[in-house]
Amino acid sequence: MRIGELAAAAGVSVRALRYYEEQGLLASRRSAGGHRHYPESAADQVWLIQQFYAAGLSSKAILAIMPCIETGEVTPEALALLVAERDRIDRQVEGLASARDRLDTIITTAGTPSCTGHPYRPAG
């Protein structure tokens, strides 16, 4: 499929696809006229790249992980990177859950006329 078709299928801009290609995250073959052509599986690959970016992974980290996904083989170095990224995401999730819990407390006590304390401050 051509770049515009992939952009539409994956829900991203053509510019994003060019960037992914510049970073080595996505590969295309060129036609005689210089047009980029991608395999049908590229839309799934773009979705995965976007998920990794959304999780805060860098292009460098994604580039190191992609071969493991493509081949199913994980080197010790890639495994260490995957574990470190998972642990970083776990810390983010814990922080977000804590923020959500504080918001829930504020929301719950917001309508209470006798609310005299500061429910958004942790006890201590």
Automatic annotation (TrEMBL):
Keyword DNA-binding: yes
Domain HTH merR-type: 1-68
Entry-linked InterPro entries: DNA-bd_dom_put_sf, MerR-type_HTH_dom, MerR_fam
CDD domains: HTH_MerR-like_sg3
Record SUPFAM superfamilies: Putative DNA-binding domain (SSF46955)
Highest taxon listed in the record's lineage: Bacteria
Signal sequence coordinates: none
Keywords, alphabetical: DNA-binding
PANTHER family: MERR FAMILY REGULATORY PROTEIN, REDOX-CYCLING DRUG-SENSING TRANSCRIPTIONAL ACTIVATOR SOXR
The protein's name: MerR family transcriptional regulator
Annotated organism of origin: Amycolatopsis samaneae
Lineage, top ranks: Bacteria, Bacillati, Actinomycetota, Actinomycetes, Pseudonocardiales
